[in-house]
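mind reviewing this fold:
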Amino acid sequence: MYMAAGQSGGAARLGAPRYQQCISRAMAGSSPMEVPDEQSFSLDYFCVPDHYKDDLSHLMLPHGMIIDRIERIAVDLCRDYNLNYGSGERLHMLCVLKGGHQFFSDLSEALKHLTLRGCSAPPLTFDFIRVKSYAGTETTGDVQIESLGIDLREMKGRHLLLCEDIIDTGSTMLSLIPYLESFGPKSVKVATLLTKRTPKSKGFVADYVGFSIPDQFVVGYCLDYNEVFRDMAHICVMAEAGIKRHAVAGGDENKL
């Protein structure tokens, strides 16, 4: 689902009592946690690979905070799908590669943990798609969608959840969602770890959002810059020296 101003979403290592407390407090969807423009952690206080330190300005989101936020998104998803569609309705997750892979993996794991703790998470299935709209640090506006061998006609009648790493201008989702809706799913919603506060935004708001971040170029936690930094656990801000060092023709397909 998409709209012009909005709402969005976390939960996993929660027992049933705490889960029920979250349910009673929450409303449909959930707003992102806003990261202040000035938020900055020194790289020296965290485990960051030495070979990346000269490429980074500072750390924005520690890994532990990311995981806790995703756990809450999982709680919100369970609540919404059970209330709106009933406990037997299957949720089909579509992971947007490559950047969305880690978020998708941790979110699906959080949903499975809820089930193990007696909470009614929806049955899950999943597929992968690839969407390209980035070259280097800038969106190209040219959206390419690859279904990676799946027949999108099989999406008919399903509840789809797109799992994305970051929403930048929103152009890609504004193209991708109508394309998927043409195959007749029951619903299409979007979960993204990050949404960027940028003047270039086209007004797209995801249904479940982990963090609203400043208009800075971020890497780590599977977000890349020209295929580098995906293996870093935390989310960090690129330094100008790092951008220049790793600049290549073509490149970054993961910030949408």
Q: What stands out?
A: Strands lie at 33-34, 56-61, 91-97, 124-135, 138-146, 159-167, 187-196, 208-213, 218-219, 235-238. The two ends are 16 Å apart (CA to CA). The chain has one domain: 41-245. The first strand starts at residue 33 and ends at 34.
